[in-house]
Amino acid sequence: MSAKHPTSLEVLKGARDLLADPERWCKGAFALDAHGNLLADGFEPGACKWCLAGAIEKISGRSSMEYEPALGRLNRIVQGSANTPITLVSWHDEEERTHAEVLALLDAAIRLEAA
Questions:
Q1: What is the rounded distance in angstroms from the CA atom of residue 103 to the CA atom of residue 52?
Q2: 3-state class of 10 per DSSP?
Q3: What is the rounded CA–CA span in Å between residue 55 and residue 17?
Q4: Statement: the pTM of the whole predicted model exceeds 0.85
């Protein structure tokens, strides 16, 4: 990744790498610490589990230049596949959502971003 401003593609790939291990994925919070405590954001010290948006936040360093474009790409894919309008966070936190589906969404976003 670029040291200063990661591209949207770098952010998406970094989030994919971060969440590849299901032990580092969570729902219902941007991030959790080792004790399961909710953390305010994805790059808070002590975070060891992230939701998809929290992982994007951690990798982007909350860069206003890249955080929104990466989330925008993911939101467009989710909204395009749903029969009703839905936000990425709502989609991600649905009870039936699986880790594999989250990774598949990231893979689709990476393919589109790389094209």
A1: 9
A2: helix
A3: 10
A4: yes
